[in-house]
Amino acid sequence: MSADYSHLSSAILEQCFGKVVQAVADCLFSATTRTLGQITSATKFSRKEAALALAVLVKYRLVDFTASKQNPFLAEYSLRREDILCLLRYPRYVHLVQTKYGNVGASIAEELINSGSDTATGILIKCLAEGENKAESPESYRNTFLQMVTDHYIIKRPELLVGDDQDENVPKFETNECDFFRHPNIDLQLLAKIRKGEASLTEARDSTMVWNLNYDRFHQDFRDTIMVDAIERKLGENAAECFRFILKIMYNTTDPWQRKLSNQITFVEIKQAIERKSNNLDLMKYLDQYISLITDDSLGFFRRVGDMGGGVYVVDMEHAFESLAFACVESVITERFGSKAARIFRVIRCKKYIEQEDLQKEAMIPSKEAKSLAYNLFQEQFIHVKIIKKPGGGSNGPAKAFYLFQVKEKDTVRMLLDASYKSLYNTIERSNFEKNEHKGLIEKSQRLDSIVETMKERGETDEYIAEIVETFTPPECEILNKVKNRIKTLSKAELTLDDTIFLLQMYQHHCTSLPTGIRKFK
Amino acid sequence: MAAEVSQLLLAVVQGIPAGATNEDLTKALPDVPAATRVEALNILLQQGGIEILKKGEKLVYRAKDPEKKSALPKDADNEEKVVYGIVEEGGNKGIWIRDIRMKSNLNMIQLNKILKNLETKKLIKAVKSVNASKKKVYMLYNLEPDLSITGGAWYQDQDFEVEFVDVLNQQCLRFLQMKRDNAEKKREGPLAFKQMSCCTVNEVQKFISDLGISKVKLAEADLETILKTVVYDGNAERVRQQDGSHVYRAVNSPLPPTGLVQMPCGICPVIKNCSNCGDVTAITCEYMRDWLD
């Protein structure tokens, strides 16, 4: 966790939940755990305000709490720092659900996002009340919900343990791995009653089971898309389809977040899966060729490890994300320092350690330019220098030192990730600034819109409406459009930035042993 | 007659590296009369093919290395001879003036004079090294400087020809891409496509020499270095063949343009200084302003 990330998460929380939550989260960010008392004394908020903020964070699954070891009556709160960034990914989650389950799924996901976590019945009631898709029956909502649970997009939160000594103690939860995706019992009749107002939500039998979105499952889909797209760009559509099947087979036997290598897959398995599900004749005809194409490619996604069953293969996540993350780093270098610098970077990565003189010869760049580019890259911490010293003095002759360029891959990626966090923070800041700067104007236009809306409903004449609209002068209109455009550009940049961040985070998960945001089912 | 005998004699003398005595010569060529032998030896001495040494009381004839045939005029003084000898030892790699001074033990002024003298007589020449532009090295006048001094095909008068390399780099890439496009049209399965899009260095060399963009003749090794730069640019891949040679093929980048560089922060030169306070902030950022308007 870097300072850049702490600024970013603070800005995100302010945007989503306001100042109090931001302050409480900031206080938690800097410590492993804090108690409510510590939080109130640090933030100067009243106990009630701080507790409310904590409740919001707990509901959105951003704060965990456990009983203190010394005092079982005292709760200690800790922030799930990595998950804060996921708040920005909500549009992507909804979009993914929309493409998979249609509008019904999208509205379920939206409700889950809005409420943070809720019971199944509660969610369905809200969805039905929202009523965007009036044509859809409660059954279809229920079935989609259950399907999303089956597909692991929705996960159950640990259930509260009810016991005699629970009254005073900090609540405890039961985490049962096989229970995460068990279907809830949704009573449609009761649902109808509640909607009519004949019953209350507390009567529902599933009121102890609370659900929320399973981020990891979404991230798994995002990751697959990155890999399949990379194959498509490099080796064409058929190879990409082939790889999609390979990933599907991989998930049958492998934990999706296994860090380095997948478990083994045989050629026969792939062939059977493709023959059953694909109707791509070209792919079937040349399947062995496509597989050897993917295996031989320098991206190194797929590796042959044995000969049983027509060939045994593994998916090499570590190599895959190393290739992809460095394609990303190289593209950043190309844009920032020019293509010659990218060439130098690749030479250094390829040669592991290289001296200045050899570097310019290998890259075919005149020495002056090569030096300046390499030193620039060094200054911005894309490359590093290793110094090897030969002891000298006395009879050994003068001391000698060799300065070798190298790429410390993990450091480079972390540096870039921090830069991305900072950029993301900047877009949010700038966007807030633009909004504040033209607050009056934006509010005025909103007021005007609502006035016009009501006037239309009342059936006023078009002339009269036009007259009202004209109170918004053309220069004001121009400024407003400009600001709107700026904010639009900024939010688009936020989304594309997140692509980079996600890719680099995947690198950290698969290529290092650093703790990452992915913690299976917790 | 004497000229023919001189060749025979030279062959005999060359056969005995330690030096041939008169007896050796009579033994090897018994049917040559002494007068002719003397005449032939004189011719060889004149040509500088052999030299006479005194070994005890006897005269010994030894063959001189024809490469090293000294071009030093007879009137050269001792210092000149010594310096010339040192430069000669340096071969086509040349020798630095400081090393000459160390070896010859002459002082700087004298040495400079001698070197200048030898240069005007076109016996030696000074060559600038590409590795260090200020470092001059001396070598014999008739020698072709080593590649490490001139830098090979990529240097013209000690200057690296950036444009030439860039043009070659682009043309090589164009050739690889052309090859791939052609292979794509054929549709004969993925492996065949891959194989057809690969090029050997030889093919590239032929293409480049047919283009006629290079005045100098480029060797395969030269083009290999160029192809490597195409690989380092991320536009091609180097594939190792089973026989150990390499072929090249054009490839696409696996990623679309990175999100980070689509906004000014990704390419900002002062992002390190960027924070909430101070001169560089997101709100006052000029790059950001230009980008948003």
Automatic annotation (TrEMBL), chain A:
<feature type="domain" description="RNA polymerase III subunit RPC82-related helix-turn-helix">
    <location>
        <begin position="7"/>
        <end position="66"/>
    </location>
</feature>
<dbReference type="GO" id="GO:0005666">
    <property type="term" value="C:RNA polymerase III complex"/>
</dbReference>
<dbReference type="InterPro" id="IPR039748">
    <property type="entry name" value="RPC3"/>
</dbReference>
<dbReference type="Pfam" id="PF20912">
    <property type="entry name" value="RPC3_helical"/>
</dbReference>
<protein>
    <recommendedName>
        <fullName>DNA-directed RNA polymerase III subunit RPC3</fullName>
    </recommendedName>
</protein>
<keyword id="KW-0804">Transcription</keyword>
<dbReference type="Pfam" id="PF22536">
    <property type="entry name" value="WHD_POLR3C"/>
</dbReference>
<feature type="domain" description="RNA polymerase III Rpc82 C -terminal">
    <location>
        <begin position="144"/>
        <end position="324"/>
    </location>
</feature>
<comment type="function">
    <text>DNA-dependent RNA polymerase catalyzes the transcription of DNA into RNA using the four ribonucleoside triphosphates as substrates. Specific core component of RNA polymerase III which synthesizes small RNAs, such as 5S rRNA and tRNAs.</text>
</comment>
<comment type="similarity">
    <text>Belongs to the eukaryotic RPC3/POLR3C RNA polymerase subunit family.</text>
</comment>
<dbReference type="InterPro" id="IPR055207">
    <property type="entry name" value="POLR3C_WHD"/>
</dbReference>
<dbReference type="Pfam" id="PF08221">
    <property type="entry name" value="HTH_9"/>
</dbReference>
<keyword id="KW-0240">DNA-directed RNA polymerase</keyword>
<keyword id="KW-0539">Nucleus</keyword>
<dbReference type="InterPro" id="IPR013197">
    <property type="entry name" value="RNA_pol_III_RPC82-rel_HTH"/>
</dbReference>
<dbReference type="InterPro" id="IPR008806">
    <property type="entry name" value="RNA_pol_III_Rpc82_C"/>
</dbReference>
<dbReference type="GO" id="GO:0003697">
    <property type="term" value="F:single-stranded DNA binding"/>
</dbReference>
<comment type="subunit">
    <text>Component of the RNA polymerase III (Pol III) complex consisting of 17 subunits.</text>
</comment>
<feature type="domain" description="DNA-directed RNA polymerase III subunit RPC3 winged-helix">
    <location>
        <begin position="329"/>
        <end position="407"/>
    </location>
</feature>
<dbReference type="GO" id="GO:0006351">
    <property type="term" value="P:DNA-templated transcription"/>
</dbReference>
<dbReference type="Pfam" id="PF05645">
    <property type="entry name" value="RNA_pol_Rpc82"/>
</dbReference>
<dbReference type="InterPro" id="IPR036388">
    <property type="entry name" value="WH-like_DNA-bd_sf"/>
</dbReference>
Automatic annotation (TrEMBL), chain B:
<protein>
    <recommendedName>
        <fullName>DNA-directed RNA polymerase III subunit RPC6</fullName>
    </recommendedName>
</protein>
<comment type="similarity">
    <text>Belongs to the eukaryotic RPC34/RPC39 RNA polymerase subunit family.</text>
</comment>
<dbReference type="GO" id="GO:0005737">
    <property type="term" value="C:cytoplasm"/>
</dbReference>
<dbReference type="GO" id="GO:0005666">
    <property type="term" value="C:RNA polymerase III complex"/>
</dbReference>
<dbReference type="GO" id="GO:0006383">
    <property type="term" value="P:transcription by RNA polymerase III"/>
</dbReference>
<dbReference type="GO" id="GO:0005654">
    <property type="term" value="C:nucleoplasm"/>
</dbReference>
<keyword id="KW-0804">Transcription</keyword>
<comment type="function">
    <text>DNA-dependent RNA polymerase catalyzes the transcription of DNA into RNA using the four ribonucleoside triphosphates as substrates. Specific peripheric component of RNA polymerase III which synthesizes small RNAs, such as 5S rRNA and tRNAs.</text>
</comment>
<keyword id="KW-0539">Nucleus</keyword>
<dbReference type="Pfam" id="PF05158">
    <property type="entry name" value="RNA_pol_Rpc34"/>
</dbReference>
<dbReference type="InterPro" id="IPR016049">
    <property type="entry name" value="RNA_pol_Rpc34-like"/>
</dbReference>
<keyword id="KW-0240">DNA-directed RNA polymerase</keyword>
<dbReference type="InterPro" id="IPR007832">
    <property type="entry name" value="RNA_pol_Rpc34"/>
</dbReference>
<dbReference type="InterPro" id="IPR036390">
    <property type="entry name" value="WH_DNA-bd_sf"/>
</dbReference>
<dbReference type="InterPro" id="IPR036388">
    <property type="entry name" value="WH-like_DNA-bd_sf"/>
</dbReference>
